[in-house]
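@channel sequence for tomorrow's demo:
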Amino acid sequence: MELLNIINNNARIIPTDLSIHTQYLLPYLDDLKRASEDSTFSTPEASIRLPFDEEIRDEVRRLATKLQNPKLKHIVVLGIGGSNLGTQAIYEATHGRHTEFRPLRLFFGDTVSPRLLTYLTKILIEGTESPEEFVINLISKSGTTTETIANFEVLYERLAKKFSAEAIASRIVATTDEGSKLRHTADENGFHHLSIPKNVGGRFSVFSAVGLLPLELVGIDTKQLLDGARDMAELCLKTAENPALTSAALTYTHSKNGININNSFFFNPELESCGKWYRQLMGESIGKEKDIDGKVVRTGITPMVSIGSTDLHSMAQLYFGGPRNIFHTLIYGPNKGFDAQLPSELKLQNLVDGINGKDVKSIMNAIIGGVKAAFVKNAMPYTEINFPEINEYYLGQYLQLKMIEMMFLAKLMNLNAFDQPNVEDYKDETRRLLSI
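structure tokens (generated this afternoon):
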């Protein structure tokens, strides 16, 4: 099958400038190759191994088979950040953002919100007659995430009152680190459990049980997803001339030149959550107080997400008239099987020229072309990622591309891509306030 079409012609970086970074990263490329072959997941880069690991895939499918039945209609993921963003990105990209009329739906309890919890409780209590109609997937790598545990307790209490604790235990799955307190609690209560490899951090975990179980349950083709991820990994680990390394070098070079905002500009609205996933990936991986040597550097590149053409009517003035500190990536692809066409005779005549008889895809292509021409006219750097089709295979490629890119980028910046020590500041203070 095809690979993502990645175009860097307008990145506005001299190729010789990139070769320096390419040479610097060659030893690290060898480290990543070894990580992809390490079935023990022993390195910080362990997530690269996930698409190649048949054992994890088989374990997830066995559990999914146990949980699936003709009555199943609600899957609720209780997780936050890396525990749900990748799953949500793939679900919305394949199913669209509006899923109200689908017989089998995936919900995300990703923040402590009374309104959200009331909504989820109403769906599960009033909309079900037996436990076979739902699955609750509680996801926390540490097993102690405040927001996730709080949301679970609210839903569990109501469901246990309606169906009994014994009846719902087999409809609950805890996905967590092997030795976490949550794992032990799941065993004590008779919940199912799945493990996250110790060295796979949340924002790199989408191809582990974290993403695979809920996606498998809702009918997404996880084989194609992992095939795409594996094909992209093989491409990016084969040679120094690969898209992840090039993207990292471009982003790094621009950041050194003061272009320190990275805009993922999606022209398919169903891909918006892919941008939110990437926002966490970049924010946590390279937004650091200290570098690998312990030196205080307070560095990072600010990620942002734009949706075309919506944000052309809210942000274009800033993009074209404001400071030249943004590196844009235009991301788009066709929605095969979906089409809409304007009539040849318009009801609202003489208002917009050139749209009669056009299909909506042609109009969007013209908008994308207009944006690219405006970027060129204003000497603004951008790259493109063109999906041959929005499906599981190419989504797997995209997510894997970006995770490997982030590893390269952190290496160039002399940062640890896999920790997030400053996140604990708010978590510690939250626990302190709750204990008062």
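heads up for whoever presents: The chain has a mean pLDDT of 95.
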